[in-house]
Amino acid sequence: MKEPNYINIRSSNKDFLCCLNHDRMVHNLRGKRFIHEVDIEGLKRCSMTEFGFVNSALRKKIWPLLLDIDSDHIINHHNAIVEHKDTDQVAKDVERSMWRFTKGKSKLRDQKRAELTRIINAILSLHPQLHYFQGYHEIGSILLLVTNETLSFAMLERLSLYHINDNMLPSFSEVSKLLSLVFPLLSLLDNQTYQFLNDSQVQSMFTISWILTWFAHNFDELENIARLYDYFLSSHPLSPLYFSVVLINHFKSNLLVLECSYDVVHSFFSTLPEDLPLDKLIKQTQQLLEKVPPKKLQEKSKISLLPESPMCTYPYQWMKAMTLKSNGGEKKPFNVYKFSFYEMENTNNTSKTIEEDYYKKQIELIEITQGAYRSRCLHLVTKLNLSALLADEKPHSVDELAKKLRVDATTLHKIMRALSTIGVFKHHDQVDGVSSRIFSQSDLSRMLNNSFTRDAILYKSGDCLYNGCSDIGETLKTGKASVGSGKGYSTIWEYFWDNPSELSLFEKGMTGLTTPLIPYFLGMADFSKFQIVVDLGGSQGILIQEILKENKNIKKGINFDVLETIENNKKLDRTNVDSRFSEVVGSFFEQVPVADCYTMSKIIHDWDVIKSKQILETIGRSIKPNGKVYIFDLILEKDRDFYTYRTWIDIDLWHSCNGRQRTEKEYQDLSSSAD
């Protein structure tokens, strides 16, 4: 027996492996024609597996096969068009179509609209018994965007005469019956969800666009709709209704936390998220179809469709007549296998291990590139004060949160879900339902309600540092700080002096970073013998105020910083500040107040060896006998638990101001070198 040939068609990280058992079949798949003698049932099963038919190139070949379309015998529909009763309405609807799928492609949009108009008018001209309905053009647009005008005409004609024929009757009576089946089917799937909707008095009318257009009206991403069409074209014509019921129940946890009222529930279903787990929902839909077949559903609900309804006559006669014969008359199977890097078939273990290991390593590298998104997303939710809305420690729907924040719910969902993977927010039902829209507080997000943490996050992920990251290539070339170079500044300090609002954010951020550490500083240092303590570069003065609070023996505590910072501090509420507290303007490179103790928190690390030595020498000229200098800073490599954090802070410092993290020995060498 001849060994099969293989074609490996890649789409991103998805693989669709076609196992073909005939040289001629390989030629036809790669060429203009596609062999008709295929295993249709195998294709239908494939539509229910992960990724379905994967991409438009394969769909263009497979969709017509599922509808028994012979591409060699499609009539020229251009010649069939005549004026009909719905000509004007078709023109109006088509004129409004395809915006979502052709953004920025006006020529393509105009071309496809003209093609769609011809297709619909030809079908309605050829079959005057068919009545146009609004939404019909949306089904046609999906077929057209995935295939071409000729194939789309043939497929839409076939669907109009069979799968969706109930929608094209003179009245909507059969469509009303279909909608009446939604809640009875839901009650058989999950009575609790059904009861909630029933109590809300919402009607199944909210599903009408789902069912009539096969969800073409409800998603902005063509890939999502095409994935559903893979399944709908492969299964019972009631599958869009069954999928709708499964989808409703998918939102169960989101629904049950809502107010049980018509307005709230109807509004909830008015838009659908783009990131639904479609493969999972399709499998559940097929299971429901098998558990409650359409005939059984009609019996249980006591709602009977017309005997001639396509919902009752499926599978159609032309389906039964489809053969699996090759040119030689011998039945030859067409096996379709799909795999990902983690689930491979027909491969040996060695190649699987190599490719899987390669893919995992590649993903690790790609995840590193996503660091900018992590920073910016954290900045956005912090700036929105989103965590405050979760302070009641209860689960909340992302739609509810988005409404309160006046932001887009789909984008907020994506941001919160991504942040939840790194511990910021708790995403409910992540194991069984990856697209749950319910979130609550986590240990990390809870910290965002702390003003010091908020300020630190807003500074570290703010515009100054975030936008400045693009300049690090300049630092790599020259070794000079370049955060502000894009704006014409040689150092970040010059940028701050010229931008008071950014300086204020920096001061708040540094206060936020320092405040949680103050108890540790006070535990390490003994201030009981000092009368005057100066905190150099003390920003908002939090450290010196805490030192005064804990040490009543100190006569004076001075917050020493540059003019711009001290001026900013005048805006702070100082009504309850200790009377021993004062602020002095100056530069620690020139002169500092006389004192017997100096503290510096996260100051020395901002400067190179020369500048750091200069600071220490300035202190040396003013310090009293037996005085002391406390440097509170991170020591590189001292604690391996925080080594990663410190090494990235080191890059941050070098890039922004040519500062650096130092080892314990480097600090010792620095202090001993100062005169």
Automatic annotation (TrEMBL):
The keyword S-adenosyl-L-methionine applies. Signal peptide: none annotated. GO terms for cellular component: endoplasmic reticulum membrane. Pfam families: Dimerisation (PF08100), Methyltransf_2 (PF00891), RabGAP-TBC (PF00566). GO terms for molecular function: GTPase activator activity; O-methyltransferase activity; protein dimerization activity. Residues 53-236 form the Rab-GAP TBC domain. It comes from the Eukaryota. GO terms for biological process: endoplasmic reticulum to Golgi vesicle-mediated transport; methylation. Keywords: GTPase activation, Methyltransferase, S-adenosyl-L-methionine, Transferase. PANTHER family: RE60063P (PTHR20913:SF7), TBC1 DOMAIN FAMILY MEMBER 20/GTPASE (PTHR20913). This is RabGAP/TBC domain-containing protein. It comes from Cavenderia fasciculata.
